[in-house]
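COURSE: Structural Biology Practicum
ASSIGNMENT: Worksheet 4, Part C
STUDENT ID: 0417
INSTRUCTIONS: Below are two proteins. For each, the amino acid sequence is given first, followed by its structure token string. Answer the questions at the end about the second protein only.

PROTEIN I
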Amino acid sequence: MPQEFESQQTSASAQTAGQHDEQTVERKESGLAEQASGLDSLLDDIESTLETNAEEYVSSFVQKGGE
């Protein structure tokens, strides 16, 4: 009997561990999606700024005599 009980516990533990792993993967994927969304919005902001002020932005990097 103790061996049967131990086998059932091991099986239940394995299922619980599998469910925990799936939940961890889902959380990581949602976190990555949030980060990607944040990065996309940042890049969109940069792009719109450069569209309106590209010449001014580039001219700030141009070296003027003796600098």
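PROTEIN II
(use this one for the questions)
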Amino acid sequence: MSTISLDPKPGFVIKSRVLEAQNYLKHSSGTKVFINVCHDNQVPKPPQEFDPAIVFPLIIQNEWEIPIIVSEEKQSTDKKGIPSFVYDCCINSLCFQWCQVNSELRQILNEWCLESVELLYEVTLDREYSIPKMLSKGELSQTKVESSEMSDSGFQKKLEQLKQNDTLGLIEELKPDEPRDDEELPDLMNINREQKAGKKPLIQEIEEMSIQPKRTGQKPEIPKSQVSTVTFAVSFQNLSDKKYNLLVKLTTDSSVDLANQLALSVDTETQQLVLQPTSDSHIALSNTSNQLKVPVPTRRVCEPESFYVKSEQAIYVFL
């Protein structure tokens, strides 16, 4: 698959700090954060050109947003040697010009950049930020992005391809009166487990789906030597679809077949996607809680659809 290497131009810097973090050992509270807001013509623009009278009402309705490409996390230090984190948020160059001219749009962009970093790195950032007099904090990253991620059309095409397959599945929201983290969650792709009329499994394998014989009796304990540890990378892509405006993509380098191994739910109280092994799974996640929790904005959690594609070792969640 072809990739595009961004060559961003510096713009301005947002200085904030970590308030909370999923991994507090890595992102300790109070650590400084610098976000380089930069631009490159290769980053896609919104489908609607910026016109304040038209666009601001669309923003209020969550129907217009500037696409942002976030770099990998970088570590830096200030003049006193105190460590900090640096991220590059790259937008289209024309969009950057819009934000330079319109101060209200620039403030909204600042919020979108903070939110993008929070989503990608599972942190909560202070909204009492400052704009220091610098074009960038350190050198800008030449982030490499898959060509399909540079436009909505690539992921829209992917969604349509997945929808054409009969193994489409829905994620159900985890309500307060439904099972919580300490209770067993439904299998992602177990097509035999207590399916009620009209009820589909949460995530089903898209390409190779095998019918498993019905299990009876007590489940045997799986030896630890047979358990494979799996690590996922999480990426986000804003969409302009009428139904969905965010794609969460979970990918792994592991060759382990994930079919019937994982359960995925949406915790509406904490606004998180929760991924964890099923009770009879042969895999384990790489963190101590054996769960992957992905925070998503409140406005995103609305009847998501999800798919597992074995050939890519990827889980697609459309919100």
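ANSWER KEY EXCERPT:
Q1: The chain has four helices and 19 strands.
Q2: The radius of gyration is 21 Å.
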